[in-house]
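Continuing the series of single-chain predictions for the mutant panel. This is the parent chain; the variants come on the following pages.
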Amino acid sequence: MIEVHHLNNSRSQRVLWLLEELGLPYEIVRYQRDPTTNLAPESLKGIHPLGKSPVLKDGPLVVAESGAILEYVVRKYGKGRLAPAESSPDWPRYLQFMHYAEGSAMLPVMLKLYLSRLGDAGAPLAPRVNGEIENHFGWLDAELGSSDWFVGKELSAADINLSFPIQAARLLHGLEKFPNLARFLDRVHARPAYRRGIEKGGTYLFGS
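Parent structure:
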């Protein structure tokens, strides 16, 4: 049985959504952030030394890192769903967005979060960080265009991985300049599997 070591209000919500899309059985091991520091509890280090979430346990195997977890599950259990075949012309684009989500896209959003906690001390860096958000999410908005999904005509794990940075950008910066991304989140939040993941995962600050 797959176990998802799930921290509230975290990237691990994407893993629950993916498992719901694939209809796979799984168990949730829950962890709560410290109400004062917002940090994960020390008990998460019992499953992985970094003490971060998500962590997936599949039998004796322990896998950390959101993108790696999604790719592992899709390759092992997807049976051709949620990813193009490696022989497909869509494969390079899929691979790009799978890595982009936790690479370039998340950095300016995380910087925005940290600056918000610094108050006036972070003000000198705010224009640069806002500029990077508009650069990256403007590019994502253009890449999506009028399409429903980022790769091909169907939902893929790349969309699932991208959902978190886009949700975080909406929360911390707003998507008024990125209407295609706003519509993307509307489609995401309407999916029954996404809603089931939210019901099982609990209150989720980043998603409707």
